[in-house]
Amino acid sequence: MKKIEAIIRKSKFSEVRDALHKVEVNFFSYWDVTGIGNEKEGHVYRGISYSTSDIQRRYLSIVVNDDFVEPTIKAITSAAATDKVGDGKIFVSPIEEAIRVRTGERGGETLN
């Protein structure tokens, strides 16, 4: 099992969610987060310049069986990419154990 953590643009969340559903990743958690990244451009709205040093993003946390890792990554990258700085990052980490709270069941079957 692997944990996939993705930080994406908030504006791309619906597309990423739909792409994940298409590859049968139907459960994940997400949060709205603020971070500091490599974007250096300021935005101007009605003549007022706004700093983009604090960047609003969406953070996704997904745990999948090993055979779902590549389809999950491809779904996120294809749906989240704009080919501009600030599209986000994906991190993959090993998961040692998963336990279903209701039944006490252990292992990869808990993800179904």
Q: Indicate the percent of residues in helices.
A: 10-25%
Q: What is the CATH first-level class name?
A: Alpha Beta
Largest sheet: 4 strands, antiparallel
Count of helical segments? Answer: 2
Number of beta strands: 6
Q: What is the CATH third-level topology name?
A: Alpha-Beta Plaits
Radius of gyration: 17 Å
Average of the residue pLDDT scores: 90
Based on secondary structure, the structural category is alpha+beta
Distance between the termini: 12 Å
Integer count of domains: 1
Low-confidence stretches: none
The percentage of residues in β strands lies in: 25-35%
Give the ordered list of helices and strands. Answer: EHEEEEHE
Q: Which of globular, elongated, flat, extended, rod-shaped describes the shape?
A: elongated
Major sheet strand order: 2-5-1-6
By CATH, the architecture is named 2-Layer Sandwich
Structural account:
- The chain has 112 residues and is α+β, with helices and mostly antiparallel strands.
- It has a single domain, classed as Alpha-Beta Plaits (2-Layer Sandwich), CATH 3.30.70.
- Helix content is 20%, strand content 34%.
- It is built from two helices and six strands.
- A four-stranded antiparallel sheet has the order 2-5-1-6, with helices on one face.
- The mean pLDDT is 90.
Protein traits:
112 residues, Alpha-Beta Plaits, two-stranded antiparallel sheet, 2 helices
